[in-house]
Amino acid sequence: MSDRLVTPERVDGSMSLLVDMMGDALDPAYADAARRRAAGPEDRPAPAKGRLGPLARAVVLLVLFGLLTGVAAAQVRGRANASGAARRALLADVQRQTTATDRLSRQVDQLRTAVAQARDTGLGDGARGRALAAQLSALELSTGQTKVTGPGLLVTLNDAQDPSTTTGNGRGGQLGDGRIYDRDLQDVVNALWAAGAEAISVNGQRLTALTAIRSAGEAILVDFRPLSPPYRLSAVGDVDAMQPAFADSATARRFTTYTSLYGLGFATQRVDRLSLPAATPPELRSARDANTASTASTTKPTVAPTGGTP
Amino acid sequence: MIPALALALGVVLGLFLHPTVPDALQPYLPIAVVAALDAVFGAVRAQLDGIFDDRVFVVSFVSNVLVAALVVFMGDQLGVGGQLSTGVVVVLGIRIFTNAAAIRRHVFHA
User: Which of A22, A230, B53, B108 is the most exposed place for a label (fewest CB within 10 A)?
Assistant: First the structure.
């Protein structure tokens, strides 16, 4: 120890911590003990009766060390198993529910087809029935209640690769300049309608006159379902008229500028055959089926007083 | 040979007996193991250097484990437990590597 104290000042004096760590990896006590042993062999008495010999002591310590390691490893493994089991259970839950949802939506599709068929047969073959059926299908088309296929435009919008990219004008810009917001989606959808689109869907969500495009926190909701980028807008319509009209719209020109300014993703593509799903049927809040409404109106007076007395 | 067997016996005991560790001590167990590992590597190197001393081994082992656990405990009380355990692991890791390199030079002469 003493020889380390008199070593001349090192050039890298301030870095002694790292150097010491690398140089004195072996406990200096070993060297001290060896020196003491060399100085006087009788320095250490032979192990007294009942005390452990040097080898036994090391063995006991090594068993202890192994025990410590084993226990720690067992603990870590136990904890990992516990959290892994919870994760697996959650995953299985999610998968089960997704399968159930898929099955139910298939059932909805089947039932819808059955309803449409029943309605068509119910309307009959007469001229009046056929006129009504034609009117119905036209209405369904415009209200988005049926699946639609046809040629159209596929517009893809995406956040900038690095959402923190700035405007490049040196002012620093705002965080989130490179993100697509709900109003951007609204603008593009409106431009597509104006360009002559007959049916539009965003990431598989069909738009109707009642569909809201809004944001909740960071996510964009379309028809109250959260979407994640990239946003793919499929618009069915007369492509030859729609494409130039949309490309010439103020919105499309604005987004082209954004692409070069902020690195937003914006692309328009002609597709010969787009397939749009049906929208969820509108919820009836006030309207009632005439048959049940008549019974409800007769029961109402008898129910209302009992409900109003307390 | 006997030390290696002792080590294996300890590991097997720890893995299969499953002694319950008090919840309060659980966070310090991994750090204690790393500290003990440092003492064991130092002992092996000392043995190969021919300066092994069982008393130094026992003292360094016990004090290493206790000090490492104590440092992390203090860190936990001060709210820097995670950072301090990282620091302890880095320092002990460097020592373990340096000693392992010395052992390697002894064994393989390379």
Answer: B108
